[in-house]
Design brief:
5 strands; 22% strand; two-stranded antiparallel ribbon; single chain; alpha+beta
Length: 152
C-alpha cells in the first residue's frame, strides 16, 4: 500500500515532467499537431500512371505536381513520393483523405527537401487543427518510397 508521501512524490514527478515539457527547449515538440507516415511501392504507382490519362491524373495530382513529376529524372519515383505524401498528410490530419480531394495535397520534391502545400478542404482542415507548418522527408530504397510528415 502506498503512503501519502509516496503518492505526493509521484504527483510531484509528473508535475515536474509537465513543467519540463513546456520549457523552451521542448517548445518545438509541444507544437506537434500530427504525424503521418506512408510506404508506397513504386510498381503500384507505375501501374496507376500507365492506366491514366492526364485528365484522370488531375484527380489525383495537382497540375504543377504532374508537370514536376514528368520533368523529374525519375518520374515514377517522383509520382510515388507525391502519392505517399498525400497518404501521410491524411494520416497526420487524422481524417485520412475522407472529404479531401487527392489533388488538394501537393508535394514539391527538391534535392534536399520535401515541401507540402495544401489547397481547398485540406487547407481548411489543417487550419481548423491549428496546423501552420509541415515538416516532411522522404527516402527511397529498392522499389519503395517512404514519406514522413510532421504537422505543427
Amino acid at each position: 500500500m502506498r503512503t501519502d508521501q509516496q503518492c505526493q512524490n509521484v504527483t510531484d514527478f509528473f508535475k515536474q515532467q509537465e513543467s519540463e515539457a513546456l520549457s523552451p527547449e521542448y517548445e518545438s515538440t509541444a507544437r506537434v499537431k500530427g504525424i503521418g507516415i506512408d510506404i508506397t511501392p513504386i510498381y503500384r504507382i507505375t501501374k496507376l500512371i500507365d492506366q491514366c490519362d492526364r485528365e484522370t491524373l488531375n484527380l489525383l495530382f495537382a497540375p504543377d505536381e504532374i508537370d514536376r513529376c514528368q520533368a523529374a529524372h525519375n518520374p515514377l519515383q517522383s509520382y510515388a513520393v507525391c502519392f505517399a505524401t498525400k497518404e501521410a498528410v491524411g494520416k497526420a490530419l487524422g481524417t485520412g483523405l475522407a472529404g479531401i480531394g487527392w489533388n488538394e495535397i501537393e508535394a514539391n520534391i527538391t534535392h534536399s527537401k520535401l515541401i507540402v502545400h495544401l489547397h481547398g478542404q485540406a487547407s481548411i482542415e489543417a487550419s481548423r487543427l491549428g496546423i501552420r507548418e509541415w515538416l516532411a522527408t522522404w527516402s527511397c530504397w529498392e522499389q519503395y518510397v517512404l514519406v514522413q510528415v510532421l504537422a505543427q
